[in-house]
Amino acid sequence: MRFKFNLITLSLLAISGAVTGTAVAADFGVNKANTSTVRLEVFQCKRCPQVEGYTGTIGFNATYIESDDIHSGNAFGTDNDGANASVDADLNYQDGAGYKAKFQAHQLGLDNGFAHLEAGKSGRYEITADYQQLTSYQSGDALSQLWYQDGVLTPSEHTQTQELSLQRNKAGLGLSYGRDFYQAYVRYDHENKTGYQSSSMVTPRPVNFGLPVDANTDNLTAGLSFSGDSWTTNLNYFVSQYKNDIAALSLPYLYDVFSPAPDNQAHQISLSGQYQVSRTVVSGRLASGKMIQDDDLIQMSGNPIQNWDGEVETLDGKLSVTSLLSNKFRLGGSVDYSKRDNKGSVWEFAQFEVNGITGAFKQNVPLDTERRGVKVNASYRFNSDYRLQAGFDRKEIERSHGDREQTHDDVLWAKLNVRALDDIKLKFKASLGNRGGSEYQTSELTSSESNPLLRKYYLADRKRTAFEAKFNHTPTSWLSLDMTARYAKDDYDETQLGLTESEDYGYDINLGLQFNEHLSGYAFAGQQWIDSNQAGSQSFSTPDWSADIQDEFINLGAGFTYTGLMEDKLSLGGDYLFANSTSDTLIIYDVTTPQGDYTSFNHSLKLHAKYALSEEMALKLAYQYERYYDTDHAQIDVDTVPGLTTLGDLNHNYNAHQVMLSFSYQLR
User: Fold this and answer.
1) What is the DSSP string of 74-117?
2) Euclidean distance between CA atoms 35 and 231, whole angstroms
3) Rounded-to-10 torsion of CA 346, 348, 352, 357
4) Fewest C-beta atoms under 10 Å: which of 19, 192, 253, 399?
5) Low-confidence ranges of the chain (pLDDT < 50)
6) How many angstroms separate the Cα of 656 from the Cα of each of 71, 81, 517, 629, 630?
7) Residue 634 pLDDT
8) Quick one: which of 35, 30, 22, 26 has its CA closest to 324?
9) 541 contacts 562 by C-beta, under 8 angstroms
10) What's the DSSP call for residue 10?
């Protein structure tokens, strides 16, 4: 089954800002302070008058793009070569009666842009409206031998060029209304996704083709929240419905050769709250959900059902407590529970082997999961210069009918914050983790298909060691330095076949520069290395080959801003970014054999000059350059491998340019 939203997504949506941000944390805002004995008139700001009317900036952009690869549209906001136009805005309105409105827009008119509007009366009600268009470009010259039209994939006598890209159009409308102690809210969002993406099927040989995409997702969330002097609570309901307008795909000579993503829906109701007693805060959350997929199935020999009748029930709960036992010592902990109960129908299916049908029947098995977690932590502040934190986390997961029925992950961690030296801050974190569990390979479903020595990395026993150090230094008023170094090692000491070891380490350096009131700049550098080792068996027995995989990533960047030129009318700026990633694989069997590597790099340069025509009007000229290159050994021409039809070599190698002239007007 395929569902548009998983349990984590639903849980986050219930408390996210998308539902007008009703926080479950304690409200320590200024508006909750006791001001009954304060003479407010004494503290009124005489130089901060309430600005009424319209304020903000609106801009109009004229853009010219030169590129021979649509992949550059991911950086420029559109793949349209030549002239383009867009609008930027950041406008505000308010009056003396408390009515406020805000409108924001960015690159509105291009293939990647958004607009946001909110209006209402402070402390009473608010209406929000949103529109966003997101487009991702994969390739503009994919070579396809199957052409889609009206649900049929028609083989073409000649290879045709096809664009692989996805466009999402999102629109949303929300309303909230409240008073001092309560708030009600409702929001509706709709998303339409269209385009083509790479896919494959066997007909009867493997064929890659452009899969049409035309789907709609509708989300509705509504809720009530209440708050008092020391408590808050929130009741929320969320529903999502996914509908795929692409039906089963057919060939001219064969029906229903490809099944699309099925329609589905998800529901969740949640209750959360928090209560504060003196220096102790207790918070909790309980959520119950259901995911349903009952779309028709493609009919074939041996399939006894018309539709899957799938249903998954979910239950989530969490309780957290934190208490400040003294001015220096804080203690906290939490317990959480999550259950995924598969209520889908059970059917009997004939079992097939290479030499024919055995005559035996087996049932499909609903897979259930159950997770329990416990966390305890403590924090002690020795003085203003030293603070120590430590904790223990445990997570237990039970899976029905899996390779391993039960696993548990234990993590012991500690943090130390040091501010003993002038203008220097140090932070250290170390952790030790261990995963164990029940006997591996207990599932009858997989024991005959998998080598009994094989261990899946997310289920296998593992020991993890991790360390992180952060350094912050401000040696002068014009220079700040931040450095981070990290290291982690995973040791799968009980694994003979599978991932046996992995190391992940890297660093980040950031410089902030403020030479004077007019000239500022920044620079950063970061690298990451991931080295992995795995073992395999060509003979379906003990290990007889191994692989070493080395991944490396690097990011470099710098930029500057210069203001105050030409009597404070002209400002200049620039940004440069370099990103590179490589992946090398060596297979060791009888001899060491390098496998096809993956490499990509990107140079991005942005320059801009802004000139103030007056106090309200300004012109901005900007230039952006992108150099992009990638090579993936898995990308091959259409008929390079006999019996396999691909979409061609989809690697990229291009230079792209963008020039933008903007006019902005500031409302005062």
Assistant:
1) HHHS----EEEEEEEEEEEEE-TTSEEEEEEEEEETBSSEEEEE
2) 20
3) 180
4) 253
5) 1-46, 354-357
6) 10, 10, 34, 12, 15
7) 83
8) 26
9) no
10) H
Mean pLDDT over each residue of the chain, to the nearest integer: 88
At 444 the pLDDT is: 55
Helices and strands (H, E) in the chain, number of each type? 3, 31
Assign residue 72 a region (left: φ > 0; alpha: ψ between -120 and 50; beta: otherwise): alpha
CA distance 360 to 82: 64
- Alpha-carbon distance of 588 to 586, in angstroms, equals 6
Say how far apart CA 177 and CA 406 lie, in whole Å. Answer: 47
pLDDT confidence of residue 37: 42
Instruction: State how far Cα 346 lies from the chain centre.
Output: 34
The residue to which tokens 């793009």 are assigned: 65
Query: Within 10 A of 317 (CB to CB), how many other CB atoms are there?
Result: 14
Q: Is the dihedral of CA 192, 196, 197, 201 positive or negative?
A: positive
DSSP reduced 3-state for 439: coil
Q: Residue 313 has what pLDDT? A: 96
How is residue 294 annotated by DSSP?
A: -
C-alpha to C-alpha distances, 574 to 313, 515, 559, 577, 607, nearest whole angstrom: 53, 16, 5, 10, 4
**In this structure, are residues 105 and 113 in contact, taking their beta carbons and an 8 Å threshold?**
yes
Return all residues near 278 (Cβ < 8 A) that are at least 6 apart.
none
Query: Shortest CA distance to 429 belongs to which of 375, 488, 491?
Result: 488
Q: How many residues can be counted in the chain?
A: 668
Q: How many CB atoms lie within 10 A of CB 593?
A: 12
Confirm if 506 and 528 have CB atoms less than 8 A apart: yes
* Residues 536/568, Cβ–Cβ less than 8 Å: no
| Residue 34: per-residue pLDDT | 43
> In the prediction, which pLDDT does 360 show?
59
What's the token pair of residue 333?
Answer: 């902990």
Cα angle value 490/338/287 (rounded, 5°): 140
Do the beta carbons of residue 108 and residue 92 sit within 8 Å?
A: no
How many Å apart are CA 17 and CA 130, to the nearest integer? 13
Q: Which candidate, 388, 379, 387, 401, places its Cα nearest to that of 447? A: 401
For 327-378, the pLDDT digits (tens) are 999 999 999 999 999 988 887 776 655 444 455 566 677 889 999 999 999 9
Predicted pLDDT of residue 77 = 95
